[in-house]
Amino acid sequence: MQFIHDNHRASPLQALHSRFFPGIELWVKRDDLLHPDVSGNKFRKLKYPLLALRDQEPVLVTMGGAWSNHLHATAHAAKLAGYPAIALVRGHDGSGEVSTATLDDCRRLGMQIVFVAREAYRRLRDVPGAWREHVPQVTERHVWLPEGGSAPAALHGVAEVIQELDFIPATVMVACGTGATLAGLLAGLQGRGRVLGVAAIKNGAYLHTEIAGLLQQAGYPAYLNYELLTDFHHGGYAKAPPELRQFCLELSAETGLPLEPVYTGKMFYALHKLVLAGKFHPGERVVALHTGGLQGARGFL
């Protein structure tokens, strides 16, 4: 797999010194720098599912929103691997098509875009095999990749984040969309330390079930050394009120760290608030995983 083997290296681990995080020893795992095209945790989540297909000639089928980092990463990975790819994209109404910089990139990379209505999109999540209703002439070559790349095999790639560290931190912070990245970090930690997951969506408590299911399906123990924080969504997925945007701007200006407000910005904002509330031990060693997704910030320009 060219997109894997040509860029198989650990992402940098950067010490971060900022007035926003007093009293802790903060490190950032820069997965935004892991691959030039296939961004951050999406690279890790795609790695093993695509390696399993290397002796086949698959047609990749997946789903996502109009600014989806997963679609963007899958389009790049498919192009590099020489695989056809189809994206089922959530539409704003029954037939309305959407044009975004993300989808334009996907099209240029050869990904076929198929818009589906919101109700049909929900069925893609809830009904196994529902994707077949939107793909003509499905064959045995067609392979389904779940939303966000959250297949059980994805956990093996995310677990390598921990293997790349020189130490086991007391706390790992991560933003959560589907729960697969958090589950992968638990798999890598093997019961050591703890993970704090910041849900980027409203009503994110259901992610507990997703995390447990993914761990079980991937063959890992039912690790419970994590906490899911559900009060830092800032209004819901892709919502970025002025306070959050200003925080991201100020933190980036101070540290040079590129941020977007959908995932990583919310994680760092939550970390800032937790530090001020005294939720960490003095000098506690914390690793924050920068999951990339910077292309999605174009939706806020």
From TrEMBL:
Keyword vocabulary terms for this entry: Pyridoxal phosphate
* Keyword hit for GTP-binding: no
Q: Which residues cross the membrane?
A: none
Molecular-function GO term, any one = D-cysteine desulfhydrase activity
Entry keyword annotation includes Plastid: no
Q: Name the residues annotated as catalytic in the UniProt entry.
A: S68
Kindly provide the name given to this protein in its UniProt entry. Pyridoxal-phosphate dependent enzyme
Its cofactor is:
pyridoxal 5'-phosphate
Q: What is the source species? A: Undibacterium piscinae
Residues that the record marks as modified (N6-(pyridoxal phosphate)lysine) are K42
The record's annotation in Pfam families points to:
PALP
Q: Where is the Tryptophan synthase beta chain-like PALP domain?
A: 10-292
The family this protein is said to belong to: Belongs to the ACC deaminase/D-cysteine desulfhydrase family.
